[in-house]
Amino acid sequence: xxxxxxxxEVARCFRSDGGRTVATLSRLLGDIDLAExxxxxxxxxxxxxxxxxxxxxRPSAWILTTARNAAINxxxxxxxxxxxxxxxxxxxxxxPAGDAVEDDAMTGVPDDRLEMIFACCHPTLSVESRxxxxxxxxxxxxxxxxxxxxxxxxxxxxxxxxxxxxxIRDTRIPFEVPASERLPQRLNDVCTVLYLIFNEGYAATSxxxxxxxxxxxxxxRLCRVLATxxxxxxxxxxxxxxxxxxxxxxxxxxxxxxxxxxxxxQDRERWNRAQIxxxxxxxxxAERHHVLGPYxxxxxxxxxxxxxxxxxxxxxxKIVGLYERxxxxxxxxxxxxxxxxxxxxxxxxxxxxxxLDALPRRDLDGxxxxxxxxxxxxxxxxxxxxxxxxxxxxxSRTQNAAQQRHLRSLIASASGG
Amino acid sequence: MQYMLLIYADPxxxxxxxAEDDALFEAFQAFTNEVRSxxxxxxxxxxxxxxxxxxxxxxDGKLAVTDGPFAETKEWLGGFLIIEASSLxxxxxxxxxxxxxxxxxxxxxxxxxx
Lengths: 417, 114
Description:
The structure holds two protein chains of two kinds.
Chain A: H1 6-29, H2 32-53, H3 59-77, H4 82-94, H5 113-120, H6 127-137, H7 143-149, H8 154-171, H9 183-202, E1 206-207, H10 213-229, H11 234-247, H12 250-253, H13 273-287, H14 294-307, H15 316-329, H16 333-347, H17 349-358, H18 361-364, H19 368-380, H20 384-395, E2 399-400, H21 401-416
Parallel strand pairs in A: 1-2
Chain B: E1 2-9, H1 18-38, E2 41-46, E3 54-59, E4 62-67, E5 76-84, H2 88-97, H3 100-103, E6 104-110
Antiparallel strand pairs in B: 1-5, 1-6, 2-5, 3-4
């Protein structure tokens, strides 16, 4: 019997295994809400019993068994139909109670997080719901933390989570890794959710802060878990590398006053070399599979930047080539825009402006980066008046306060110069 | 678990030529046969068009019977299919094969066992 504080021990158990236990119970019950309630109950029981009876040698297995029993009791109590009885029977079969709680069968807590990720990122759920649910169940964020991170009210987020959990239960969204014929599309859906969580943290679409790092950290953490669980998927490794390369620059990207520092002006000493090294390893591992995908290509672009000793050493021709390949795999006006920007660095502002003005204006007009890219090219060409107009167009198309401040300073310097 | 597939027709898709109509009819027959032979089929039939509909309401104890559907809707219910499936993924796979997805939409709803 250990002497440490029981509440500390319960909290430790929750942090280290809470997500896995919810995943296992959810898969067996098909009901995340019920799984969370049962787990909660198990922690309450642990707080009561552990100080009295001593700590179990395998606390996580103890918690899972106790939560399992709590779920069965709830199902029997609330039983209104065949359905619930079947679920209870399934749970009893899948996680046999055994005589002792610390039966050998319970030594390891099974890892059902992969099944959980696929359920949470199911294509029949709205994208907002997928993001919120993934953060709730897999990252273990509280409703309040998710609401704050995604800038919605607590009540809205609570309601969104209740609805999506109900939909999973009522429509019986499966907790399973999809069959191989469905896997590529479904894995792509999962990667998209992780990528959106990262992007929301990195390039916050609105709000005051430029980076909400807790979202970036969670996205990277979840992607590492996904890469561990599916080690043979090159795009998962590509996504991990992309996030790490991007995140390695986050400290250098924000000036002390909170304003944005562009890539070319960043202090490369402040790039996180450990993250870059981890990204290099992940991308090399991905490339060993010889199946190129959009995330790997974006990671390769990020690697070119990371490998350059200074902003003037960046191999822009290589980047232009990578964007061209990306456009073939994933035609999109935003990728075309990025290619145009790279051409600007490789061949100069006149070439960039020619490419930018040839892009489909209708698709890009609402996008502030498009106007920013035009403004930069115009400024470099000495067409100050047109540059200011383009900066103003960019300013009117972003809600992010830090980006707005950055654009106002650009307007001021372009008008003054 | 049972799911109902509600097959909606979209009137904004212009009238088809007779040949297309025949092809659609055959596609629906092939689809129904496939569902039957897979063992998932529970029930299903097409419905007569909404011009044949009668809507019944009782308000404050008074019966009101009106001609036609309740409201002008963009899409109208053209038929239904009830299937047995083990998860939404399996139901989704059946629904995706339904020819109705090409000319309107198919809504999947779990049937609640009372």
